[in-house]
Structure formats: structure tokens, C-alpha cells
């Protein structure tokens, strides 16, 4: 019983970590996108001109 409890808590811990990491990645991507929106837009325009 104890071993199974430990195993379950470990899997829960791992899944929660993965979930947190995914959320962090999304927030970082959004922040990055907001910060570099103008730059990427300029680059796209330059590429189209070239």
C-alpha cells in the first residue's frame, strides 16, 4: 500500500510539474510575442520587399 501511495504521489508531482512548465512556456511565448511584435512585423515587411 505504501509503495503504491508513493508511486501515485510521484506521478502526480511529475504531471503537475509538466502542467506548470507548459503554462510557463505559454506565458513566456505570449510575453515574447508582445515584446517582438513590431520587430517581426518589420522583418516580414523587409522580406516581402526583398
TrEMBL record:
It comes from the Bacteria. This is Uncharacterized protein. It comes from Ligilactobacillus salivarius. The lineage of its organism: Bacteria, Bacillati, Bacillota, Bacilli, Lactobacillales.
Amino acid at each position: 500500500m505504501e509503495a503504491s501511495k508513493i508511486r501515485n504521489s510521484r506521478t502526480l508531482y511529475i504531471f503537475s510539474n509538466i502542467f506548470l512548465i507548459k503554462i510557463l512556456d505559454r506565458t513566456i511565448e505570449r510575453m515574447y510575442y508582445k515584446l517582438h511584435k513590431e520587430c517581426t512585423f518589420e522583418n516580414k515587411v523587409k522580406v516581402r520587399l526583398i
